[in-house]
């Protein structure tokens, strides 16, 4: 068996037509673009699923904020109806529900920041 020496040139690769090379390049480009598109879809799907809980927290915060405004309105009504004790009860109910709504909203903001 013959051994290659330093002076002997390496065998030349077989020549392929330029059309075949360009065609393969286009096919590889299409496959790469399709893979990137699938990756982007998977990332968007995962982030969409992860944003469900913070979205529900925001909805709960909005509902509690509306409830606290209703409690304030009812408290003001009772304050006008029976003067002071009902007003204090309405303000206390408002403070509790508004604080809970603020807490839920803040938890939602923290979750969104960690996801995005």
Number of domains: 2
Kindly report how far apart the N and C termini lie: 64 Å
Give the overall shape, derived from the CA principal axes. Answer: rod-shaped
Give the fraction of residues assigned to helices. Answer: over 70%
Order of helices and strands: HHH
What's the count of strands? 0
Low-confidence stretches: none
Mean pLDDT: 81
Note the main sheet. none
User: How many DSSP helices?
Assistant: 3
Radius of gyration: 34 Å
Structural class: mainly alpha
% residues in beta strands: under 5%
Q: Top keywords for this entry?
A:
116 residues, mainly alpha, 2 domains, 83% helix, rod-shaped
Describe, in plain words, how this protein is organized in 3D.
With 116 residues, this protein is mainly α. It has two domains: 31 residues; 66 residues. Helix content is 83%, strand content 0%. The chain is built from three helices and no strands. The relative contact order is 0.10.
């Amino acid at each position: 068996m013959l051994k290659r020496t330093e002076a002997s040139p390496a065998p030349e690769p077989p020549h392929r037509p330029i059309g075949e090379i360009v065609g393969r390049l286009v096919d590889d480009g299409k496959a790469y673009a399709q893979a990137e598109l699938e990756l982007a879809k998977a990332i968007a799907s995962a982030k969409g699923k992860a944003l469900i809980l913070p979205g529900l927290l925001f909805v709960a915060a909005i509902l509690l904020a509306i409830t606290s405004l209703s409690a304030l309105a009812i408290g003001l009504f009772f304050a006008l109806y029976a003067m002071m004790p009902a007003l204090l009860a309405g303000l206390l109910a408002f403070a509790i529900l508004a604080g809970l709504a603020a807490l839920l909203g803040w938890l939602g903001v923290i979750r969104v920041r960690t996801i995005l």
